[in-house]
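Can you please make up a whole protein chain along with its C-alpha cells because I've never seen that pairing?
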Amino acid sequence: MSLAFRLSVFIFVYILQGLGMFWLSIGIVGKKVRMVPFLLCAVFIPLIYLLNAGALVFAEDANFDLFVLIVTFISATMEVAVLGILIWKCYDIPVLHGIEAAMLSHFVIYTADDVVSQAAATYSPLFDRMHFYTFITIVLPKLWAFFVAFLAAYVLRRSGFYRHFAALFYNKLKTALIMTVSYTLMFVWTVIDWFYPNAEPNALYAIFFFSLITVVLLWVQFMAMYTAGQEKIHIQEETIAQQQAHMELLEELQQEIRAFRHDVTNLFSGLTLQAQEGDLDGIQEFMKKTSGYFDEKLGNEIKQMDGLNNIKLYPVRSLLTAKLAAMRQKHIQSALEVLHPVQERQMMETADILRGLGILIDNAMEAVPGKNGEIRLVMLQEEKELYIAVVNNYDVAPDLSALSEKGYTTKGSGRGTGLSSYRKIISRYPGCVSRTYLRDGFFVQELHVPAV
C-alpha cells in the first residue's frame, strides 16, 4: 500500500472518530450541532493522534508496550480536554459539563470501535487486495463506532437526558465521583488488553462490552434523574417554607390593619368633637398626623405587598417574601420597589436568578450594622433587560478591589464564599452584567439580566 493511501485512511478514520465523539457529546448536553465546532473537532482530534503516532516512531523496542500505554493515556486525556473546552467555548456551558460529556463519548465510541476492530483483525481472512482488508479491519469499525455514537445521541435526546445532565454537578462529591468513574471507564479496554492480551474476541466478549456501554449510559441517566429529583424535592420544600413566610406576612399585615382600625376609631371620636366645635386648624393637624401614622403603620407593608404582587415569577416572589420576613425578625429596615410586572422572559434560568438574588440579599443582611440596618431591594422590568439592585448600609466599608477574591468578607472567617458562586452563575450567561459600588454610605450590588 502506498504512503498516500495509508495517510488518507489514517486521516479519514480519525476525523470520523472525532466527529462521532463530538456528535455524541453534543447529544449528551442537549445542544444542536454547529458547523464551526464540528469542523474544529474534525481538525484537532486527528492532529492529536498524528502527534502521538509520531511519538510512537521514536519508542524503544524494549519498552514499546509500556510506551504505547502511556501515549494512550495522554492522547485520550488530551482528546477529552480539547473537546470539553471546545464545547465550553462554543456553547457557553460549564467546562466540567463539556469534559464529562467528552469522557462518556470517548468510552462509548472507543469501546464499540475496539470490540469490532479486535473481532475483524482476528476473524477476517487475509485478502489478496490489502485495500479491502484495510477497509474491513480499520475503516469499518470506525464507521460502526460513528453509527453507535449517532444512535446513542438519538436515544439520549429522545429520552430527555440533557434535561437532567446538569444535576450531576450540583454536588461537589457527586461531581468528583462521576468524573472519576467516567475517566476510569475511558481506559477499561486498554487495561483489559494490557492484562489479557490473548483474550479471544468472541460473541460473549462482544456482548459483555456492548452491555457495559448500555449499563453505563443507564447508570449515568439514573444518577442524573435521581439527583434532579432530589433537587426538585429540595426546591419544593423551600417553596413551601417561602409560602408559609408569605402567609405569615399576610397575617401580620392583617393584624396591623385591625390595630390601625381600632386606633382610627378612637382618633375619629376626637375628630367628631373638633368638627362640632368648628376647629378647622385642629382638624387639619389631625389629618396630617393621621396620614403620617398611616404611613408609619401600614404604608411600607402595603408597598411591599404591591411590589411582591408585581413579581409574576412565583419562585422569586416566594424567595423575596421569605427574605423580607427574615429581615423583620432581625429588625432590619427593608424596602421593596417593583415598579412594573416582572415576567418570565429573562435569558437566565429562574433557578439561577433565585441563587444569585439569594446570595446578594444574604450578603446584604450580613453586612448591615447591628442597629439601624437598612436594605433596599429594587426590581425593574424593562423591554430588553431585568434590572436588580440590592442596597445596604454597613459598619465597615468593603474593599471593592478585594471583592473579586474568593472568600473575601468583612464579617469574619467562614463567610463571603457566596460571591464566588454568584460570579460563576453570572459567567454562564453572556450579556449579564454585574456592578458593585459605594454611594452615599450604601453598598450597591446591581445585576442586569438580558431578556430573551
User: Anything to note?
Assistant: The first strand starts at residue 333 and ends at 338.
